[in-house]
Inverse folding.
């Protein structure tokens, strides 16, 4: 995707060392080494770090220089979606998808935009193409499973989630999705695997929540209701630990609600 040694190095560091990646991209831009690609990588960093406004501004500059670069067009669609502009995001994604993208990044990114704007059937085609080009990429496979689930292909979704867990056994989002897909039976029972991965003091609160909910759902389906309730309590313990109950906040909310109700009665 990149043509400069600096940009190739930066691409490899985007996730591991974004600060160093940023330095390399800026240096490549100073040297005028493939400016559209350097701008694309800067925009990608901005999007990945929650700044879609900056990402969109940068990617539009890149597209002025190289309007046909598919991965830049895909990133523009993603930035528009992040900015809560779903109509523009979907239109941008559909236009790009109609031109048959070939790289897995573009296929997956466009698929995500289409899926999140309701075009699930179209997103399935893109995710299938992305996973065909990168069959070991469990993120693409998870996206495919989610899209298949939305289109009603539950068996296809199940196979996709199973493949995700083969590639990445700790993918707790796929673990919960798989359990939630259908009623659990003795044949599909994954409680032992889920329980082995669960930690009560897990620093990853999201993982604790997902795995605990998966265990609660499994036990409920299999008729062990006390265990289901216990797992539900343990699932939510991490969130309670990191965000404890604040009585003062509730008092403030109650006071605001009471004041609002009083104003309404006076107006009548």
């Amino acid at each position: 995707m990149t043509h400069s040694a600096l940009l190739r190095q930066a691409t490899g560091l985007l996730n591991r060392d974004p600060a160093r990646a940023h330095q390399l991209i800026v240096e490549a831009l100073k040297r005028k080494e493939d400016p559209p690609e350097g701008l694309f990588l800067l925009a990608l960093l901005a999007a990945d770090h929650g700044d879609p406004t900056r990402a969109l501004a940068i990617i539009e500059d890149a597209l002025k220089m190289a309007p046909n670069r598919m991965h830049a067009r895909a990133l523009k669609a993603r930035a528009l979606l992040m900015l809560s502009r779903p109509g523009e995001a979907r239109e941008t994604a559909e236009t790009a998808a109609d031109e048959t993208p070939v790289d897995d990044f573009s296929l997956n990114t466009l698929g995500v935009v289409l899926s999140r704007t309701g075009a699930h059937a179209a997103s399935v085609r893109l995710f299938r193409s992305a996973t065909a080009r990168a069959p070991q990429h469990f993120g693409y496979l998870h996206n495919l499973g989610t899209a298949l689930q939305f289109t009603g292909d539950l068996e296809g979704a199940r196979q996709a989630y199973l493949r995700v867990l083969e590639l990445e056994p700790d993918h707790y989002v796929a673990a919960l999705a798989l359990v939630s897909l259908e009623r659990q039976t003795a044949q599909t029972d994954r409680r032992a695997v889920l329980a082995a991965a669960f930690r009560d003091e897990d620093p990853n609160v999201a993982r604790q929540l997902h795995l605990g909910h998966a265990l609660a759902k499994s036990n409920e389906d299999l008729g062990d209701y006390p265990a289901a309730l216990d797992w539900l309590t343990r699932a939510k313990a991490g969130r309670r630990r990191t965000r404890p109950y604040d009585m003062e906040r509730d008092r403030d909310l109650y006071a605001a609600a009471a004041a609002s109700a009083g104003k309404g009665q006076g107006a009548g």
Summary: The first helix runs from residue 5 to 13. The CA atoms of residues 2 and 255 lie 58 Å apart. The chain has a mean pLDDT of 93. The two ends are 66 Å apart (CA to CA).
